[in-house]
Every structure is written in C-alpha cells, then in structure tokens.
Fold this sequence. Notes:
single chain, mainly beta, ten-stranded mixed β-sheet, six-stranded mixed β-sheet, 25 strands, 7% helix, globular
Amino acid sequence: MIAFATLLAAAAQVPAAEARWTPLVALRGVDECTRCSGYLLPGVLVPRADWPLRIDSDLPELFRGVGVLYSTTKVLPPFDMQDGRGVPEAMRTQLSAGFAGIDGAFEVFLYHFVRDPEDARQSVRIVVYAKNLLGEDVLVEPRQAMATDGPFAELDGPEVQLGRALLEGSWTRPLESVRLGPRQGRAIGWTPCLQAKQAGVDATTSGFVNGLVRAELAAASGGAARVEVHVVAVGASTPLHELSEACEALLARGARSQETMDLSVVPPKCHVRRVSGVSRNFLWRGGARLDATRIDADGLSFLMAAPAVQTSECPDARQTAPMLLHPPYVHPETIGNYLVEHEIELRLANPGDEPLSLDLRFGKQDADIGLAWQVLVGDEPPARAALLAAEVQVGWAGKWKKDDLPDDTRSFMAKRVVVPPAGEQVVALRFVPLPSASMPFLLKLVRD
C-alpha cells in the first residue's frame, strides 16, 4: 500500500542498527495555538484522480431562510449576519490560489442546520445546482448520500450514517444523468425537506443535514467541461421538477447566517472556524515500521488531522491541503478533514523472545472524535481491494463519551494484535473522520 522506502528515507541519518525503524519524531510546542504533541506519523497527501475537486459548504453552518449558502463564483451574493449586518463585499470576494473553475469530476460536502426562530419556522430543501459555462452541452452523472436523522455524535447518528455510506459505497441516484445545454443550469442533487412538520419519504423534522454529492462531468465534444456550482436553500414547497428554476431565481441572494461569529473579519488568531470553498481533493496516506518492544506503558501517540494554524511549531504534522478558492472569512486550507479518506499501514516488529500483545486506538481528551473505519491485520500488507472490501466499523471516543476506555480512546480492533517473537504483523487501516467530530485527534498504540 505505502512506499516505505520513501517513509524510511530519513533513517539514513541514524545509526545502522536503527535504520530499519521509522524514526520517532517528537512533536513539541509552546505557542498558544499549537496542538503539537505525541509523535509524527510520516505521510503524504495523495491527489484523488476519481474526484479531483472538492467543494465544502459549511459556513454559514447555521442559517435561516432561502438563498445561496456557497457558490464557486468570484463574489458570493449579498447576505446578512445574525445581527442583521450585511457581510461586506470585500469579505464575499473570494480569494483564488490558481482556481481555474470546475472542469472535471467533483464532490460537494454539505453540513448545515436550519435555525429559524420558533415563531417563524419554515421547511427548506438544500439543492446542489450546476450551471454550464460553455457554448456546448455538458453531461453530468451525479450520485449522492444524505443523512439527517438521529442523535448527534452517537452510533446511530447522521454523521455515522454518512461515513458508513461513503466507505461502503452506498450511493443513491435521484437523477441518472443530466444534460446541460449551453449556459443552462440544473439541480443535480438535493436533501430531503428539512424542518418539516411531519417526517416522510422525502421529508424530515430535523433541521440538520450532512451529505455528499458527487458528479462526473464531460463536454459533449469530449473535451473539458466547465461549470459553476451553487449550494442553494429553496422553499420545501417547491416541486422537484421546479428545483432548477427556484435555484436560478435565488442566485443573487444569500441565506441569512445564524452564526454568532463575525463574518466581516478574517479568523482571529487560533480560531479554526469552519471550511467553505474549493480545494484539490486528496486522501492522506502514511505509515511506519516500529520496534514494538520499545512501546512503553504510556503507549505511543501520533497526531492526526491537524491544520496549519495548529501546527506552526510542527509543520510536518499538518495533514490539510491549501484551498483553491475561498471567502476571506475562512482559513485558506481544508480545516476539518471531514470524510477525507486516510490510509495507514503500520508494520509492528518484535525483535524480542516473547510474543507481544498490542492495541491500536483513537481518541481525544478535550472533546469527542468519531471515525468510520476498515482494518485488516496479517503477516503481509493486504491488497488495497481487500481493505476496501473489509467490514465497516464506527465509533466515538473522547471527553464526553461514557462508554470508551479510561484514557478517552476506543480500539479499532476486534481483538489484540499479537506479534510473535522475531516476527512482524501489519495493520492496514482505512478511515474517515465523521462530521461533528473535533479535530485534531490521536492514534495510539498500546502494549499490554
């Protein structure tokens, strides 16, 4: 799975007796924003060829009314903050780092709450709307996964439902395909009606949704497509066959934010905020070969999913990517790593004379972390196809959880990893951080 020659290259600077092990680099920091702790797990961001672009729509996370929540346009439409002030145009003018438009397959991550006053509640539907910018037809093949119901941060919650659907490849297709004529726009994905008075097949009483819409694009001539993508809240009374027209009528206005944060300023120091914008989609791939006899009673912890603002003193530990397009009121990186796929391979060696029993866990002390994962253990690295076909498991751990381990961790494993004397075991792990989880978090190897 992983090119260990690359990950172990740094070992050339250590004594020959140590060169077969991945060097353990301790993470330290005293800056008030830093989360540098534990050890560095070597790894790289791998660009995704299947879904090269990702659009995050997560701020305003809390909103009311109808209108645009995020667009891939140069300037976001006017919208008001919770206190009634309008977001200045300068803060709605998006910053570009080489953004060349949506010209290929992409995915849209949605994370939104309807937050109407109790005396003015209305049901809305969130729609992903694509508009063809070419003078020829563009073909779109969309699929989606949406989850709305259940308790937050629990095993039957909506975040778990979405994470499980992603790893299992459980997609629905409200439209088999869409043909966009020149300059034409169409709805290509949508949520159920949110905050409905009664639940139904296409409606929920929940005001929350987290979801993914994926779409493959191709110009009719076979060349590159070029579309704008808009995430729009429309009235729930809109018939499905009129969603496109309803979106088109709302593209010049934004839904009102119900966030308490001030979106007229850039994120204050240490303020992670949320993510909205376009980035190059990636998976994070890493690993290590470790002498398991050196794991002490406290275990061995690796920092995961930390952004730049939290790794200024340990920049090699950053696992997020630069944004291509984003409004100034969010950071220029993929804060959060929600539903970003991570693939890790740990080679656990035992040069001793007695078998070793090990556990691999994840956790967090100051909040909660949730993951959906697949794991395989064996003498050799498994084929990637085997890992992708493994059973999907889910779990939460952290400060507010009462059913995890005493150190605020939860095990990935159904049983301990036993490494025989003079032997080695390989743990192959694939996981995604669940929406609503708090990051960064720790992977922890524990020796019994």
